[in-house]
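How a chain folds remains the central question behind the approach discussed here. In the encoding step, the backbone of a single protein was reduced to a row of integers, each denoting a local shape. We regard such an encoding as a compact summary of how the chain folds. The sequence in question and its structure tokens are set out directly beneath this paragraph:

___
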Amino acid sequence: MSAPIISVRDVRKQYILGAHAPRTNSLREAMATSVRRVFRRPAATPETQFWALDGVSFDIQPGQVVGIVGRNGAGKSTLLKVLSRITEPTAGRVELRGRVASLLEVGTGFHAELTGRENVYLNGTILGMRKREIDRKFDEIVDFAEVARFIDTPVKRYSSGMYVRLAFAVAAHLEPVILVIDEVLAVGDAEFQRKCLGKMGDAAHEGRTVLFVSHNMAAVRGLCSRGILLDRGRVALDDSTERVVAAYLGAARGGATDPNSWHYSHRGDRIAVEQVEVMANGEPTAVVQSGDAITFRIHYRTLQREAIGADFSVCVLLYSEGQRMTNLWTNGPLGRGIAAQERGMIDCVIPKWPFRSGVFQLHLYTH
């Protein structure tokens, strides 16, 4: 295996709550610093120390597209700033092998008083592009950003969407070895987000490495082959995208993420339901997403010998927030049930899960 293009070893980043970085570039700042000294807090204590990153380690191979997910405050943006050399870690080591282009905040590297044209050259230069390279790609950048009409207007008059379109276009056309993208794409409209995801997909197909932070799990699943879940500054899970997204969604909703951690069973007079499995796209899960192919697999056995061969029907009902969303019945020949076996299995298949975000309860009836 080749050497990792990104190597992160035990990276930690500490902030002191309530602390101010000393700045004395002007008389006003010097006076403010003097006042703060009078009311200076005691030295940092465990109560005032905040570890935004706390022992993060992982390797990323060339060409991998990795989604970094986690709740707000988990350390995602801090990690990207460390990888982009915007901030230094308190401890640990980061090794990057290749040119990095980062888009972490709207207008990063832009000057509000300069025009869009001037900022393309300014931002391109900051990201490591030569003027000849920017000249060659300028029209392509402007066309991608769809701001040709406003390219000679100061960017302070741009909307946030125009800002981010131009910033992403510059970063994406830099042709970096490593592309780092934060949640900033959420500012753009749906059409532009689609273009951006397509551009990042192209970068991945060309063998570039992409790190993508987003709360849009559909985008993470569609783009990334690997996921890293951060929780309180630590790597909680580093696995396939499906497993990481399931863990993130399950934790966010306070539900079980392990399909083996909950069971459903019911014993009637003639039929016993021994287990109900939930599968998404063929894999056991406790978290499903819109568009997934869902299967409820019901395992049963008959309790009375004379019940074997009798008509047997199952109804699956789904509730959300107390409202019944749907009920699904087995459908045998001529509308009758199916013939009960001594032990059997029934699959209730929903080819494309149609519901939006929420917590659902499954009710099961046998007849």
In short: The longest helix spans residues 190-205. The mean pLDDT is 81.
